[in-house]
Amino acid sequence: MKERFDSIIIGAGMGGMCAAARLTAAGQRVLVLEKSPYLGGRCSHRVKNECRVTTGAIMIPMTPTSAIREAFDLLDVPMNMIELTGRMRYRLQHGEYDQQQSGGGLRGVIKFALQDDEEQTTRLFQEFVFAMEHIPSDRNTFREWLEKRTGNDDVINLFQGFCAALMGTNLHEIPAGEFFRFLVNSSRGSRFGMVAKGNGELMEALAEAIQLRGSRILTRTSCREIVVEHGRASGVLAHSKDRGEETFAANDILSNTGPDRTVILSGGREKFDTNYLAKLDRFPHQAPIFHISFLTDAPLIEDFDGCLVFGNNKNLIYLEIPSLISPEISPSGRYLHTAFGAPTDATTKNLTAEFENTLHELELNFPGKLASAEFLVKAKHSGQSPGMHRWAGYMLPVSTSIKNLFNVGDGNAAPGTIGTEGAASSAKEAVKQILKRQP
């Protein structure tokens, strides 16, 4: 006899886990299926040489109005975070700039890029303020918007680093409107932090609260099929090594596997209507990311407990030294560093060559300091496990053309959100739609 749940969630990334928390808090009995032994997806960690190395996310939103924080608060789960708000450093060819924690961050970085030219700074800053108050069209890219207002290469390079590091795609790949929606959302009292003992601890704490409320989480359990009958999702066929094949039934199915994978699990494109497929096929570009984590006996930057964004490279975009933020991340006397890079163009990427250039640019930025580094991760996140499933500004809605089937995750983020916050926002919207139908 099939075991029945109110909702089944496929995948325990941030979108799946936040959906499970919200549905459980609303009184539903939920089943979460996760094919790996770990929870969190790109918001988890792996232990390597006694270090807690992120699987992707580092800066996690922690504002009370964040969709992530809301999900944790619904189940009274504390977030063991170290705040990093405002601890940003930008590097261009002519120098570095530390963001002022007292405010004025946007004007400050523009002034830095323009090398203290007050007149140009005021003019360009006013253009940004106007665009934040009157969101421009998405018909043009942010690069096109910017180049109409400045020909300064340092400004363009700075915002290229900003976009790639914080939004996951290049400034020529982001619609202008979406950039400013993100800027507005991220400037309204936003707070960010790093999990003190690794992202996996955060997700395990949420999982414990979910299961204490009567829901169930099965790891090492893959979804083989989403059962679709008469245009409606009604259950899943799952498989695990210990239990073999199992069929579970539910009123609603939420997939955190990415929109493309959801179509495959549901039986293929013939199960979906043409309008939904048109949305799926329009700009179907994933956002690859390069991830490099390594240990050294001394930090590459002394007394730096923040986030360094690069605007002086083609591929290297971001560096953080988690050990200087939370000593619990790595063994005493050893310093864990995490760097990220991205292709210069996601549609014409050469992952191997551009990953090697990311490593080269890391050496150029810190000459002679990596000779004895112990590399723990050298990864190209792409394919079925990309940095993000969709570009910023080209997200799909959470609902599908199959009744009771929803997508959650970073391919279905709300406008103006991205990454982990975007995934959590998709869970918020999907759960809202599910609960709205209930009497």
The gist of it:
This protein is of the alpha/beta class.
Structure commentary:
This protein has 439 residues and is of the alpha/beta class. The chain contains 13 helices and 19 strands. It has helices spanning 14-25, 67-74, 105-113, 118-133, 142-147, 153-167, 176-187, 199-212, 259-265, 274-281, 322-325, 351-365, 419-437, and strands at 3-10, 30-33, 45-48, 51-54, 60-61, 81-83, 88-92, 95-98, 192-195, 216-218, 221-229, 232-240, 244-255, 289-296, 307-310, 316-320, 335-341, 374-381, 405-407. Strands 1, 2, 10, 11, 12, 13 and 19 form a seven-stranded mixed sheet that branches. A seven-stranded mixed sheet has the order 8-7-15-16-17-14-18. β1 (3-10), α1 (14-25) and β2 (30-33) form a beta-alpha-beta unit. The radius of gyration is 22 Å and the shape is globular.
How is this fold's topology laid out?
Elements: E1 3-10, H1 14-25, E2 30-33, E3 45-48, E4 51-54, E5 60-61, H2 67-74, E6 81-83, E7 88-92, E8 95-98, H3 105-113, H4 118-133, H5 142-147, H6 153-167, H7 176-187, E9 192-195, H8 199-212, E10 216-218, E11 221-229, E12 232-240, E13 244-255, H9 259-265, H10 274-281, E14 289-296, E15 307-310, E16 316-320, H11 322-325, E17 335-341, H12 351-365, E18 374-381, E19 405-407, H13 419-437
Parallel strand pairs: 1-2, 1-13, 2-10, 7-15, 13-19
Antiparallel strand pairs: 3-4, 5-9, 6-9, 7-8, 11-12, 12-13, 14-17, 14-18, 15-16, 16-17
Helix pairs in contact: 1-2, 1-8, 1-13, 3-4
Characteristic key phrases:
439 residues; alpha/beta; FAD/NAD(P)-binding domain; Polyamine Oxidase, Chain A, domain 2; 7-stranded mixed beta sheet; 13 helices; 19 strands
